[in-house]
Write a structure and sequence with these properties.
Layout lengths: L22 H28 L2 E2 L7 E2 L3 H8 L4 H32 L4 H9 L6 H11 L6 H8 L11 H14 L2 H12 L3 H9 L4 H29 L3 H10 L22 H11 L3 H25 L1 H4 L4
Antiparallel strand pairs: 1-2
Amino acid sequence: MTATLTRRAPARWKVVPRRRDRRAPLFFLAPWLIGLIAFFGYPLVMTVYLSFTSYTMLDQPKAVGFRNYAYLLTEDPFLWQAVRNTGWFLVVMVPTQVLFALGAAMVLTRIRSGAGIFRTLFFLPSLAPPVAATVAFVFLFNPATGPVNQALGLLGIEGPLWFSDPGWAKPGLVLLALWGSGNLVVILLAALLDVPAELKEAAAIDGANGRQAFRHVTVPTISPVLLFAVVTGMIAALQYFTQAVVAGSVASGSADITPSAQSPGPPEGSTLTLPYWLFVQGFQRFNMGYACALAVLLFVVSMAFISLLLHRRSGFSGGTA
């Protein structure tokens, strides 16, 4: 008969699995959740609610059903012009800005002497406040006295009217966006410097030239950063407001840089964007219910664009496109 040598531990020594305390994560997440509910959830719910009302901010909201949305889609004389201008910024300004920032970042990676000075020069314009930068830019591009047109005149080129011409106002704003894209240049520069050197060496050993190495090594490596640049650029384009308002007002000769309620988006509506029209309706014409309907439309469009882009871009989540 074999004696059992091992002794069973007393019952009080038995290891009891600890229950996971689910309250601790909620405790640490509470500040963020409270902020999300207070500054995003509640305003969003109230905006949707007010979009179904007639509200002037001076009296109680009155329910009007879908009347604001019906007017928005069928009768608003400025809505589609604002949609076209916002879409123009979305299609032209965002890719141009990303490509410009990527090109500038690639040039900066090749500079060996005085690299810090050139990186600072690219970054400094992004520190300028949007209003001050826009005012300065409009004066630089003044058709009569601006140094840009004077420099073009020395080359025998007749400069355009820039912000005084409906056909050149939006390209002028794109140039302003390129001038202030220092933040994006710095982000892409960091991504390019982080590309593993061994991958470039492997591509060179395999006989890849510079363009092939950029396409098959650099771009896939920095694709999450490029996606970030495109998404943030799209959000900024859909919310484009300050520069459009200030450029249009200053170029029209107005001493007041607030949006014009009578002829929005000077010259001839070329700088009128959806946020611009929303501001005019809500805070100048006091049609807050209709402005909320515009805000809901802008929110839905923004979510649709961003969701579509993130869904189709597998590199962001690691999934399959």
